[in-house]
Amino acid sequence: MxxxxxxxxxxxxxxxxxxxxxxxxHLGVSLGDIKVKxxxxxxxYCQIQxxxxxxxxxxxxxxxxxxxxxxxELLIMIDAARRASAERIxxxxxYYGYARQDKKDSPRVPITAKLVADMLVAAGADRVLxxxxxxxxxxxxxxxxxxHLFAAPVAVQCIEKMDLKxxxxxxxxxxxxxxxxxxxxxxxxxxxxxxxxxxxxxxxxVMNVIGEVEGQTAILYDDLVDTAGTLTLGAHxxxxxxxxxxxxxxxxxxxxxxxxxxxxxxxFEKVIVTNSIPLSExxxxxxxxxxxxxxALFADAIRSIHEETSLSSLFI
Length: 316
Known about the structure:
Layout: E1 8-12, H1 17-27, E2 34-38, E3 44-48, E4 56-60, H2 67-83, E5 88-93, H3 112-123, E6 127-131, E7 146-149, H4 152-162, E8 167-171, H5 177-187, E9 190-200, E10 203-210, E11 217-225, H6 229-240, E12 245-253, H7 259-264, E13 268-274, H8 281-284, E14 289-292, H9 295-307
Parallel strand pairs: 1-4, 4-5, 5-6, 6-7, 8-9, 8-11, 11-12, 12-13, 13-14
Antiparallel strand pairs: 2-3, 9-10
Helix pairs in contact: 1-9
């Protein structure tokens, strides 16, 4: 039987069922029937409620808060599908958790991005579909195919509709330069960089703004916003440097700790995020936060993987 004739099955855990629902709606299929629950001692139970033998299975799960719970759910769902004789299993991670620990930058620290990659492969994943991993080299941590999507097409479409004048894309630190440069090129915009130091995790200090931002509409562009320290410090620095308006974009809205308070108290016009992670009630109520859907992007990628066609058109 040709591969494209094999049944497409899409399942989701409890991390982001809303996004999974949008994805299957774009594909014109239904979510697979799966039971995922937690025992009183915290252990995860999973049972796939339909036949997946010989099927092309996609497991949609963001490893967001609660990170360890959602990661274990994904591993257990993959194991269940493998033991049920699925022909191929693709782990779909709109948000790849533990990605920020991608190298040994201090003595005696782990490389958790690699550890999670090993766990996914050991559980039985045949390939991975993810979006805006914290570092592109994480793809090399896998010995299975990895399709790495970018939220940039969705961001560019949104920014174009906003019709902003004198636009400059700003990388909030050196690690975000490549990402911001790609969008600046697509938007025919200028590029600036925040010179940032991070003395310890979740703490940042802005040293300087490199590039021309005075009188410009600045968009801080990053892969994720966690406690919002980097993003809001950058916004204050841009305002002090004379930017006419400051916007923020981050693919993954982790938004932990004092993030919402910081966003409300800083000079952002808007902070644009995607639905790779579901917003908390507090974040959803924040008037400065706008959410874009990446469901169509994932649906197109899943369709291409299932039909064995190129994904090149989804990249910029």
